[in-house]
Structures are given as C-alpha cells and as structure tokens.
Amino acid sequence: MGILKLEGEGAYDVALYTEEKHDDILRRVRAVGGERPMSHYEITSLAKNNFRVVTVNIYNPYVKDEEVRAFLGRYMDNVSSARHLKDSLGFWNGRRGFQALLREDPKGHGGYLHPPAMFSLGADRGMLFYARQPPFCRRCTAYGHIFASCSTRKCRFCGSEEHEARDCDKPEACHGCGSSAHLWRGCPARQRAYASAA
C-alpha cells in the first residue's frame, strides 16, 4: 500500500496492491459511515469503471463553467464543478477539468454513454477528452471509428442519414438541452447574468 499526500489538492492518494484489498477497505469505510474520524474525509474510489476526469477545451474564455457543466450533465452523472487548468507559467489556457460518472448504456461503446468529443454551445465550439475515450468520428459524431474510415452520410444537426448538415432544413435545436422549442441563447438551463436581465 502506498500513500501520497497531494499538497495543492488538499487530498491523499492511497494506492492498494490488490483489488481484494481495495474492496475490503471500502467495505470498512462504508460500515463506519459518518462516525469520527472518517466523518472528516470524503472517500472517492478511482477504481470505478465509469469514473472519468474530463478535460473540456473551449476557446472562448467567457463561456461560463455552469453552462459547460449543464452540457456534460446531459450525458454524465455527478458532474463536479469546474477546475481551471493552467500552463507551466500559471496562466489559464482555456481548459476546464471536471470529474463525472459515465451513464450506463447497453447500446453504447463499452457499455457506457459517451459525450460527443466535439460540440457547440451557441456559437462557441468545444472539444473534450478523457482517459479511455473511444475513437470519435467528426463526420457522423459516433464513437468507434474515425473520420478517415467513415462512410456514413449523416446530418449532425437532426441525425438523419438521408442528408448531410449543409442540406438540413429541420429547425435548429438548443445545444444545451437538445430542445427544438428554443435556441441556446434562450435556454432556461443557462444562468442569466445580472447585466443581461437588467
């Protein structure tokens, strides 16, 4: 067993040698529950198969973290608040880090529902990536293959296989919640700023 104190995070990283030991310790922690001294700690097991640390890159720095979190919430559960990732000089490079759980989907790649690797929030485009992310096709927005090997003709707006995005005549849908009743700028899921409301 190895214990590493993460100074900047205010956390400890405990690495166990076997999966059985991991399961045994988690059983003990759950048995103790909220009793002291364990009530002062939050235990997060990184051994979950569906746990992911997602890095989102949006080039517009004025896109709010809550908006990105709401978008991820359409595909993932228990999305944490954003952590701004910085470069070696300490400057924010536009990337945000989130921790989340993939939803189970028997039809999905690997048994999970994966968020699209390329997405739009209004006029702002973004990309996301995480460990163990399957290959993503930019043409048909499906997982399992890449653009070079894609022979599918699919509209990225409405999902129809009869036409491509440039020929789509369906009404546009909200990038945030997927509703066709409104667009992203009028989405009720967005947090309105005081200046826009006044």
From TrEMBL:
Pfam families xref list: RBD_ZCCHC3_2nd (PF23058)
Protein name: CCHC-type domain-containing protein
Entry GO MF terms: double-stranded DNA binding; RNA binding; zinc ion binding
SMART domains attached to this UniProt entry: ZnF_C2HC
Cross-referenced PANTHER family: GAG-RELATED PROTEIN (PTHR22639), ZINC FINGER CCHC DOMAIN-CONTAINING PROTEIN 3 (PTHR22639:SF3)
GO annotation terms (biological process): activation of innate immune response
UniProt domain CCHC-type: residue ranges: 136-152, 154-170, 173-189
